[in-house]
Amino acid sequence: MVGNFVSIFSDIKFPTILDVSNRSILGYSVSLNREYGGSDVMHCARNAIMPHKRLELTIPGLSYHPPGGFPSEKFPELEWAVWDVICLDNAKSHYAKMVQDRLTNLIGCTPNFGPVALPMRRGVIERYFKTLAENLFHRLPNTTGSGPDDPRRNNPEKNALRLNITYEHLLQLIDVMISNYNGTPHGGIYHQTPLELLEKRIQLRGLLPRRLEEEKRSEMLFMQTRINRTVRGSLLSGRKPYIQYEGVEYRSEKLTNSAHLIKHELVLHVNVDDLRTLKAFLPDGSEFGYLTACGRWSLTPHSLQTRRAINSLVQRKLIHYTTWDDPIFVYTDYLLSKENTKKSINKITQVKEVSKQKLTDEAEEQTKALEEARAQHELLDKVREEQINREKINEMDNYERLLKQFKTKMY
């Protein structure tokens, strides 16, 4: 919002963006990693800017309080509203190339990094997280408390399993808690609710927030990073042109027919939440089109983090997949075969959440590329099945022929 500072901090792998002028929470994200990364930060920024939608609650007795809500949900003027300055602590994820690029070039704000080891500068957000911990997380039966000696800590993992507390339950609790927080009187703003103060500034002072441009209102743009890759291939050996990214080859019909691009660089826009396709541009900035991951990598949505985890396991010879296997399924099966540790369960949840993604209508060319890849895989599966059936029939014919050859006649 114009002239306002927005703070972001994560003390419990829970990045949150707060407007310090009125104490309202604009958006959040939940990280299942040991340390939240750049993609978690951009998920948080995306959720703060896009119009918020309430979750469908499945927990009995849990409800949104009418006075509460998110700013983008309550006020149409704040849909796609952005800020000018964002205050960040010195976490490594805030220095990620993607985060700095998206904050500056997409959102159009200035990152303001505070001094190291001075939490007093972030007093507002620190107080919010203390409120969140006391009113939500420490009241759950599976709480780990504030430390190993906290009396509230009582077999948290067993309680979570016994009560069947799921990731979806956690998301619902957090969303309701923050929604209700925005509608609760706050002592720091003269016992007004954050939404009340925000409404006064909109109606009485004529607050007109800067809004994200129409052409930038895409979920994918928030999770996009830019890289350069050299086109590989060989005219002598007949190797068709391709580019390689994170251990996987990417091709397209257009690239196959562009042998003149071999040994030249393409600029690639990578959606770190979905590596099935990459959008390519020529060095002069003109759009080249989408490249699709080869093999079964193009079937199931997967993130950059999942791709790197799979490649690491392959290099360590802990998993193996063939041309006919979906690497994401092989990876999930491997995690399921391990003990039900918190780490493996979190990774499975991450894979499931990413695989739920759906392509937006605006990416027609991307959708077309993935549909063509899926149709090709279905055709290959059909041909393979027919070949296997023919081999079985041939084996039976050979077996019957051998029986006839060695059959003894009975007199």
Tell me briefly what this model is:
This is Integrase catalytic domain-containing protein. InterPro entries: RNaseH-like_sf (IPR012337), RNaseH_sf (IPR036397). By secondary structure, this protein is α+β, with helices and mostly antiparallel strands.
List keywords for this structure.
globular; 2 domains; five-stranded mixed β-sheet; alpha+beta; Nucleotidyltransferase, domain 5; seven-stranded antiparallel β-sheet; 411 residues; disordered N terminus; 13 helices
Can you characterise this structure?
With 411 residues, this protein is α+β, with helices and mostly antiparallel strands. The chain has 2 domains: 5-221, Ribonuclease H-like superfamily/Ribonuclease H (Nucleotidyltransferase, domain 5, 2-Layer Sandwich), CATH 3.30.420; 223-355, no CATH class. The protein is 39% helix and 15% strand. The strands form 2 sheets. A 7-stranded antiparallel sheet has the order 6-10-11-12-9-8-7. It is globular, with a radius of gyration of 27 Å. Residues 1-5 have low confidence and may be disordered. This is Integrase catalytic domain-containing protein. Residues 356-409 form a coiled coil. Keywords: Coiled coil.
Give the SSE map:
Blueprint: E1 5-9, E2 16-19, E3 24-28, H1 38-49, H2 71-74, E4 85-88, H3 97-107, E5 110-113, H4 123-135, H5 156-162, H6 167-182, H7 194-203, H8 219-222, E6 224-230, E7 232-234, E8 239-245, E9 248-251, H9 253-256, E10 265-271, E11 277-281, E12 287-293, H10 304-315, H11 327-337, H12 342-355, H13 364-406
Parallel strand pairs: 1-4, 4-5
Antiparallel strand pairs: 1-2, 2-3, 6-10, 7-8, 8-9, 9-12, 10-11, 11-12
Helix pairs in contact: 1-3, 11-12
